[in-house]
Amino acid sequence: MKKYLILIFFISITFPMAFAEVNIINDQTYVGDDGAFHVVGEIHNTLESPLNQVNVFVTLYNENQDVIATKNTRSLLNTIMPEMKGPFDFIFIDINSDKVKSYSLDLDYSISEPKGQVIDITSSKLSRDSFNNLIISGTVENSGQITANTIAIIATIYDKNGKVSAVSRVHPEPDYLGSEKNTFFVVPMPDKNQILDITDYTIVAESEEYAAVPEFPIGSMVLLAGTVSAYIGITRFSGTIITNLISATNPK
């Protein structure tokens, strides 16, 4: 009996510490242009091991703390490497958003084997399409030694408070890249309300074989050129630069 109690105590002080190192951050809610209710945020992995099969669970409550709805979704980034963040987006199309007064989030995940981090975003820029939607376009390169299959580009935009404003995931065409090859991509951010107060964004790429490369902020002096070299896989822009780029693509 004594050994059993010691085991329970060991589990109670060990596992919470490990789980505490995978956090949900920068989350918030919004109602999209189409009336859908969104809960967005990021999973931050500060463990020493990669994560996969990352599931996020949300519960919505009314003003009396009664449950309105529950749902689960996956991280848009399939493998979250140490010190990286994987965004998520819950979409509810059949609830009255006015009744939602609070929400709670939880997650579970599996520890995965490390993957090579060689899928590079080699250039990117912001612009608007003919429908006034914000677009992030650029090129992605496979610096690995084998073909990268089912490549995905994941973009996250942030508001002035550092909260996730919107997320998007696309597959370039073709969605595979041979070794030392590159291809063009376009990531649309169609919700116009959510792109009004952008101050920052990140963009990463992954494939079945390779994980996204580590995050790295690009200084504003580099960004003045409008197109940046993000050879380690992620590009960030200040709100001022975004305004300048959008103005340049939409001259009055």
Features:
3-stranded antiparallel sheet; 4-stranded mixed sheet; globular; disordered C terminus; 3 helices; Immunoglobulin-like; single chain; mainly beta; 13 strands; 252 residues
Q: Using the coordinates shown, work out and report the CATH topology of the largest domain.
A: Immunoglobulin-like
What's the arrangement of strands in the largest beta sheet?
Answer: 11-8-7-13
Biggest beta-sheet profile = 4 strands, mixed
Overall SS class: mainly beta
Average of per-residue pLDDT values: 79
In N-to-C order, the SSE pattern is HEEEEEEEEEEEEEHH
- Give the overall shape, derived from the CA principal axes: globular
Percent helix, as a range, is 10-25%
Helix segment tally: 3
| Corresponding CATH architecture of the largest domain | Sandwich
Question: How far is the N terminus from the C terminus?
Answer: 79 Å
SSE arrangement:
Blueprint: H1 2-19, E1 22-31, E2 37-45, E3 51-61, E4 67-74, E5 85-92, E6 102-111, E7 116-128, E8 134-142, E9 152-158, E10 164-170, E11 182-189, E12 200-206, E13 210-212, H2 220-223, H3 239-249
